[in-house]
Amino acid sequence: MKGLNQFHIFDWDRFSDGKTFVVTGVSEWLDFDTKAHLGTKLDCFIAVDKTKYTFKDGQQFTNRFEKISFKVNKDINIPIESRVIPKGATASIYGEYRNMLSVKCDDIVVAQGKDKE
């Protein structure tokens, strides 16, 4: 069958619950094919991961310290090492092993206060 990926929905709210994202880089987001400017890409890592995962066969894991990028279709300036919260995020899974995540957001805001790690 073809086109099945169009019907796969990723639950961003459930995945992001309990996570803290910290900015490691800010760059221009360009269209892959045309190289046209689309907005800003924030490279981050997951500093805190309190998400409840379902473990199989006794295997346990976390996504703490994993890298994640947020693409915003506007120009924003966020300082490195800021803790950020994506707003209006939509995510899709891709890759040969379905282990890559593409996240587009309406906006990114800097988190106020300090989260406990």
What does this structure look like?
The protein is mostly beta strands. 4% of the residues lie in helices and 44% in strands. It is built from 1 helix and 7 strands, in the order αβββββββ. It has one helix at 12-16, and strands at 19-30, 37-49, 67-72, 83-87, 90-94, 100-105, 107-110. Strands 5-6-3-2-1-4-7 form a 7-stranded mixed beta sheet. β5 and β6 form a beta hairpin. The radius of gyration is 15 Å and the shape is globular. The N and C termini lie far apart (44 Å).
Characteristics:
117 residues; mainly beta; 1 helix; 4% helix; 44% strand; globular
List the helices and strands and how they pair.
Layout: H1 12-16, E1 19-30, E2 37-49, E3 67-72, E4 83-87, E5 90-94, E6 100-105, E7 107-110
Parallel strand pairs: 3-6
Antiparallel strand pairs: 1-2, 1-4, 2-3, 4-7, 5-6
